[in-house]
Amino acid sequence: MARFASDEELETFLGRLDPDYSRFAAALWHNGVRTARQLANATKPLLLSYGLPELYIDDIKPQLIGQGSYGLVLVGEFKDHLDELAQPEALRHYDQLWGNRFESMHNQSFAASFILELMGSHRRFTNVHPFLQGRYAGLFSYNDAASGEARLAKFALHYGISVHEAWASIGLAPHSLTAAALQCDLQLVTMEFLSVKWQFLNELEPAVVQDTRPYVLAALQQAQQVLLGNGGVGVHGDLRQTNVAVQHGEKGWMVKFVDYDWAGVAGLHRFPPFMNSQIDWPDGVQPLAIVYPQHDVDLLTRQIQV
Asked: Is the predicted pLDDT of residue 222 greater than 90, yes or no?
């Protein structure tokens, strides 16, 4: 997470998000903001007291949180939207979902967001569990209360639903069912459940990953030819092994790409402002850079190379 050595560095950083934001650097610095995390975690009333207009706050915070990274939405912002009657039941569901196993802010945030959806949707979710024992933040398995069908629910600040749906139309993503905006700029996306027959590349032995290589690369090439509604093509942005699911069939490996938090229109969409520096990203893959199809090819190739 970015740390600023001076108010000039903070000003430069804000200017990269939008030139209009840089003029608030002095006020933020004066009030003790030294990292992007502190700025992203600051509540709206606090930022208003620093002189930031509400319109700018509503734009800055989603960008800082990373267009789909999960870490910085405060639980308190969700609890403020629950009335006194809902509070006890919400806390009970919170304990059921998470207990004491997960202490990081992003898991608390998504537990709270799921509670909020539960309170407002007349219990259309049952048997709610973190998918794969919580290895995928913000992703839950559940049963639809009406049909009993197993499904997945995904929470994100940004979600490339148009890319997801386009790639799902040719069988290369789980079929999406709904996409709805929630409190605090979150989106809830529900989709078909991936059975245990589907495995993620990071769960496979290296030799098996290499066996999937031609199928996975061919699937990406096919996906990149699907036109979106605006006539462009989609980019995923984060094709690491954790976001590629495979299943062996009669004709070889079937492939589905998942987790479209960084997805968008090629040549227009940008990478999030914060990216894990421990990952060996390909050349040109960096915060706020425009995403092109070749970035997906380069990252995926690097992830499954010998």
From this structure: yes
